[in-house]
Amino acid sequence: MTIARRPYVGRFAPSPTGPLHFGSLVAAIGSFLDARSRAGRWLLRVEDVDAPRTVPGAADGILKTLERFGLAWDDEVVWQSTRLDLYRDAFDHLKAAGHVFPCACTRREIADSALARDGSRIYPGTCRDGLPPGRTAHAWRVRVAGRIAFDDRIQGHQEENLETEVGDFVVLRGDGQFAYQLAVVVDDAAAGVTDVVRGADLLGSTGRQIHLQHLLGHPTPTYAHLPVVVNAAGEKLSKQTLALPVDELGAADGWFAALEFLGQDPPEALRGAGLTDVRQWALEHWSTDIIPRKAAGTAGKM
Ligand code: GLU
Fold first, then answer.
1. What is the domain partition of the chain in residue ranges?
2. Whose CA is nearest to atom 7 of ligand 1?
3. Half-sphere exposure of 261 (CA within 13 A, CB side)
4. Does domain 99-180 have CATH number 3.30.470.20?
5. Is 0.85 surpassed by the pTM of this model?
6. Which CATH superfamily is domain 9-84+190-298 in?
7. Is the distance from CB of 280 to CB of 70 less than 8 angstroms?
């Protein structure tokens, strides 16, 4: 039986923690090309749910940079900071179904646990069946169980045993902030996102996100995790290009460098061409089959 595919909806979801760097430009261009080359919609979401990490003015700078690079998005920009009620609803739903529990553990108390692949600590389960006597909860964790498997369009088959490799993870933090993992799942589902194209630093978050999708009854999008810029996959680029803040890169040069990085093999003749020509070439030739697989870089997210 063939299941009719929903029309393609993609997105770029930068965190406004500073100016756009080359790695984020690669994610923006990769997700844009994947969506537009399949006549899909491409949405923009500013991930400012983590208020303490949000840098004032950074989001505006990112939007201006995207415009300068000819990366035009559909619809209004979605700001996570305006959507806390939706995250609260999702949390309440998880709570009513018994999927979350309050946790009193401090960072120090779980500092001896093994490391998950994204650098966070695998939760040892201390508060899973109730708070230890006399302790006060400060965060809420979601219970995990079983294995999550998915086929990444670039990185291939992925499998994660959530219990042994991740552990129950935080969805509502001690400082009252909803965790990135919950916000992403709520927002992608609300926008009808069918295809997530993003940096491989988030590969280690995907199992958690799929778990939340299952608990909240949301469909799972397809995933394509692009190589990250900060490792050997960047060999093709000169050190200088890598180090340049995107704000100092010409738009067509930035596109060319991103296409090279993504293994798209733009012809030499295209070097020095204008933005419109480079973008057009990229749209006509985009292929995820030739993107190098390299996946590294593991910024921890909670
Ligand atoms: N906001 C995340 C970041 O900038 C990306 C989230 C996502 O694409 O799912 O790293």
1. 9-84+190-298, 99-180
2. 13
3. 29
4. no
5. yes
6. HUPs (3.40.50.620)
7. no
